[in-house]
Amino acid sequence: MISADTITSRTFTTVRFKEGYSTREVDDFLDEIVDRMATGDHSLARRIKEKTFSNVRFRGGYDIDEVDDFLDEVARGLEGDAGASTGASTGASTASAAAAIPDPHETVAPEPGTSYTSDANLAAPSSDGDAAQLPW
User: CB–CB of 56/21 below 8 Å?
Assistant: First the structure.
């Protein structure tokens, strides 16, 4: 079980020259979590997992990984509390779900044994040798 004191006393590394989360949005959301914990909000763990923050750069923001890791910990703690009272099991964390999403900038090698054929006619030189003749 995670306590309200643990949430309110948590500090994060402030970043400036790399992307971070808006400090105001994170602080406001942590306050909201504490307030909702007091009311026994059963949808709080789901809300934490779905929450997104504005990204900032070149002005103070919180380290994204630290905030995400802490919110995953809070959500797991809340799910554990709900699971203990209702018998529900905990779901996958936001971090592990994000890990399943491929990086669009990552270079992916072809599968072994895969051959790629090229169409030699796509960029064949023209008869005058100056320009490529394209089929469209």
Answer: yes
Question: Token match 């763990």: residue?
Answer: 45
Residue of 68, 73, 63, 51 whose CA lies nearest to 21: 63
Comparing C-alpha atoms, which of 17, 12, 42, 37 is closest to residue 27?
12
- Residue-averaged pLDDT of the chain: 76
Q: Percent of the chain, pLDDT > 70?
A: 59
Q: Which region holds residue 82: left if phi is over 0, alpha if psi is between -120 and 50, else beta?
A: alpha
Do 64 and 19 form a contact (C-beta atoms < 8 A)? yes
Cβ-based neighbour number of residue 67 at 10 Å: 23
